[in-house]
Amino acid sequence: MEKTKIGIVGCGDISEIYLKNTTGTFDNLEVVACADIIGERSKAKAEAYGIEALSTEELLKRRDIEIVLNLTPPKTHREISQKALEAGKHVYSEKPLGISREEGKLLFDTAKAKGLYLGCAPDTFLGGGIQTCRKLIDEGWIGKPFGSVAFMVGGGPAEFHPSPDFFYKSGGGPLLDMGPYFVTAMINLFGPALRVSAFTATPYEEKTILGPVRYGEKIKVETPTYINGSLEFANGVCASLLTSFDSHGSYGKSGLPFLQIFGTEGTLFVPDPNTFGGPVRLRRFAGEVQEIPVTHGFTENSRGIGLSDMAASIRAGRKARVSADLAYHALDIMFGFYDSAKQGAHITLESSCERPEPLARVLPKNSTEA
Question: How many domains does the chain have?
Fold first, then answer.
């Protein structure tokens, strides 16, 4: 198998799982170099994984690197991705695509003009849990889906993160931080959205850091931290999504469902869209809730599966599942929420995308070829 050479820009905390998976789990990828604004970080990763530590400029000049994996902080996603595209590289970025709709559109247009692949996390919807849900929906196990509710509620990063400041600035907040997992999962399950509406709130002017590093320090809150949004999908599903950094307690411990889908013949309980596995639960008609065996692979932390699929897609000349139009549509939906709250009106979305192709039920180990 011909391996696709990868260069990583950004060697912070999230890079560890990507390096682990791109060097060990997905055998169609070969990481050859990494870069970071803090040289000690890139050198440490290079030594640990047997790759080269370069400057970003040196990495972008490497002719053998086909895809740049952008793991920088969100505020620099646009800058690094744009430079990589201008250098003729395909790009796969951590979420979000940009911290404004305009940033996302610029990257989308640049990639399209240059004939390059552009993808953006999350790729959790390719994990076994949500792919099992996709199979159940496509096979009619809940009949025709018509409604959905989703909850991403918790106390927010100030309760645990060592440096949570960005999460409360413009470009942060629960919607852009965690919303991509839920919105992308919905697009995978339902297809593109047509219009959205939302209300937002900022209950606290300041947040107190509760983690051990900066305990008691205050952070000024500069972005909405409670967003209640509604989505109308082209297939007729009406959905709601609540994201909050103001609901005391840990994410996932509220007792609310992560993502629940109502159909004419049953209800589907989707696992956490920020994970790759189960459990998947189903209730048909008025029967009992039953756990459904996960039918697909990649149930562990498989971050990088979207990158692997992109590499396979480039070789096969097909559309990647984690595509530019998917990433931009998700970003457009989220900023549509903000626009709706500001304008007090429904927002008709200008963007759309194809519903990503499902993965095959049975996959060879380390493969996303199907």
Answer: 2
For 291, the 3-state DSSP assignment is strand
pLDDT tens string 93-136: 999 999 999 999 999 999 999 999 999 999 999 999 999 999 99
DSSP assignment letter at 325: H
Q: Are residues 166 and 274 in the same domain?
A: yes
State how far the Cα of 242 lies from the Cα of 263, in Å rounded to an integer.
20
Read off the pLDDT of residues 178-189 as tens digits, 9 standing for 90 and up. Answer: 999 999 999 999
List Cα–Cα distances, 305 to 223, 294, 323, in angstroms: 31, 17, 13
Of the residues 284, 318, 337, the one at which a domain ends: 284
Residues 6+ apart with CB under 8 A from 67: 4, 5, 6, 7, 89, 90, 91, 92, 117, 307, 310, 311, 314
Rounded CA Rg of the chain: 20
Looking at the structure, tell me whether residues 144 and 279 fall in a common domain. Answer: yes
State the Cα torsion 74-278-125-29 to the nearest 10°: 80
- Both 236 and 87 in one domain: the answer is no
Range of the domain at 98: 4-120
pTM: 0.95
